[in-house]
Amino acid sequence: MKVAVLDINGKDTGRKADLSNEVFAIEPNNHAVYLDVKQYLANQRLGTHKAKERGEIVGSTRKIKKQKGTGTARAGSIKSGVFKGGGRIFGPRPRNYGFKLNKNVKRLARKSALTIKANEKAITVLEDFNFEAPKTKAFTAVLKALNLDSKKSLFVLGAPNNNVYLSSRNFKGSEVVTSSELSTYKILNANQVVLLESAIEGIESNLSK
Question: Do 194 and 150 share a structural domain?
Answer without folding.
Answer: yes
